[in-house]
Amino acid sequence: MASASRAQFSSRMGFILAAAGSAVGLGNIWGFPTQAASNGGGAFLLVYILMVVVLAYPLLVAELTIGRYGQANPIRSLQAILPDAAKNIGSVLAMVGLIAASCILSFYAILAGWLVGFFVSPLLVMLGMDNVAVWLETFSVGRNLLLMAAFMLATIYVVKNGVAEGIERWSSRLMPVLVLLFVILIGYIFTQEGASDGLHLFLVPDFSQIDASLIHSAMGQAFFSLSLGVCTMMVYGSYLKKEANLPKTAAQVAMIDTGIAIVAGLLVLPAMFVAQKNGVEIYNESGQLASSGTLVFDVLPATFETMGNAGYVVSVIFFALMVIAALTSSISLLEVPVAAAVEELGQTRKVASWIIGLAISVLSVLIIFNFGSLFDLIVVAATEYAQPILGLVFALLVGWVWHRDKVLAELREGNPHIAQGLFWRVWPAYVRIVCPLLMLYVFFAK
């Protein structure tokens, strides 16, 4: 167990905003609306909310509980819940999680760098620096290196300042700004012709669209959206005070994360149909989304361009949203290996943040110089294999290996009467049997 002097979030709200910030990322603001637009709109929304409840939330409670019980980095936390003969297995699982988080950050920083470029570009156009603006929006090695480095420096800056002064402080500032910018942008988009069509698609479910493919997509999106399987929530849980009610806190994090995803849908889908009204192709002749992978870089900027001078302001606000969401997630990804380096290797937080941040940046550089062969490979390895497999293993450890009395004792720290409630009657068996079966479905039903 960690010492009493170990860093903690200063308040429950600070933790909720930081954990929600970790969960709220490009998966919410880019991935969720794209998935909704590709999978029946309202039907996908309905199934997604259901999957957050039946899969993501129970697993979130499990990861937070492991972290708070261990009061340490994932290596020690996983060792703490395993019998003596299996301690090394915990170390191996944690190391896989640290590597997966680092790999995700390596490509995430490249994508986030592009977003920084699209955020700065309209400002440069307004200043008459059109050539520089075009360069920032055009794929090139130089552009990718510069913007990745800028984003990684911001990430390192936050993490090196610690839990309360860095992660909590900046998450508590950025999350309210994120919501405010959403409200402003949605208010504007709703005044544009065509927005009501996107709103109808998103909010009115067509139940005929629900099939096995949609259910699988919604289940995967719900799992990945909450940063499960790569130890981020385990690390954040380790900084949580013992008096916090874990099931309640996890529910609040899941609700904020899901709420932001829904708000993103309320923005992006109407904006898509505004673009369609202005002559931008959204769906191809077969009814498929024309540019799902590059939606935020193709369709939405084209939408903003049709709005005249106001489009520059709208573009700046939208990409500011994207950068904020990316940053709140990236700091949690960097925190995973940094926490381990501080406690296992005795490094200071500042040194660990710089060394690990620079090492991940080197991996990003390798990806940039070998983009065609490495980018998709690392994305698939980290998010489609490592993340769901680790999520499955964590569920099995909590359900089958960690002694039930110790799990209950940890949950009682923040809720002394939890054993008499519905949660404890359902959750242990649910995370033991149902969650692993759902996870296997996510992994194999592709």
UniProtKB/TrEMBL annotation:
Q: Which GO terms describe its cellular component?
A: membrane
Q: Write down the species.
A: Photobacterium aquae
Q: Which PANTHER family match?
A: TRANSPORTER
List the protein's name. Answer: Transporter
Record's keyword annotation contains Transmembrane helix: yes
Keywords on record: Membrane, Transmembrane, Transmembrane helix, Transport
Q: Where are the transmembrane segments?
A: 41-61, 92-120, 140-159, 171-190, 222-240, 252-275, 310-334, 354-379, 385-402, 422-444
- Xref: InterPro entries: Na/ntran_symport, SNS_sf, YocR/YhdH-like
**Record localization:** Membrane
Q: Please tell me whether the keyword Transport is annotated for this protein.
A: yes
Membrane topology of this protein = Multi-pass membrane protein
Taxonomic classification: Bacteria, Pseudomonadati, Pseudomonadota, Gammaproteobacteria, Vibrionales
Q: What broad class describes the main subcellular location of this protein?
A: membrane
